[in-house]
Amino acid sequence: MKKLKNLIKLSSRVTVYVPATININETIDNTVYVDNTLTVLSKLFGGATCTPAVGCWLTTAGSLVKENTTVVFAYATEKDLQNNIDEVVDYCESLKTDLHQESIALEINGEMYFI
Fold it and tell me: Model pTM?
């Protein structure tokens, strides 16, 4: 622990779930959206990582949607999180509009928000 004392600690995690669908359930190649999300989080927090996942959720009509999703995340200092969270939320709102989604999932330090 002594060696860690002098290192930079990134104690916050920002995660954007990038769907691979448009109009709720039409499959698309989400590569451009993943790259855009990686770029945004990298600019704001110094770097980002992505990993594939399968997400499931219910539409407002009650139908199960099961889709490939890409989880894009970045670690940040608490100060950087506070200074940049509005830009992350704005980005998620634009992603929601571009992909014609009911919501985009944004996770901050283990707490999920639906934009």
Answer: 0.90
Q: Tens digits of per-residue pLDDT, 45-77? A: 999 999 999 988 788 888 887 889 999 999 999
Q: CATH number, domain at 29?
A: 3.30.70.120
Q: 52: buried, middle or exposed (CB in 10 Å: 19+, 13-18, 0-12)?
A: exposed
- Given a contact cutoff of 8 angstroms between Cβ atoms, the answer to whether 106 and 89 are in contact is yes
How does pLDDT run across 25-48, given as a tens digit for each residue?
A: 799 999 999 999 999 999 999 999
Residue ranges making up the domain that contains 24? 11-114
Q: Closest Cα to residue 59, out of 24, 30, 28?
A: 24
Q: How many domains does the chain have?
A: 1
- Give the Cβ contact number of residue 16 at 10 Å: 26
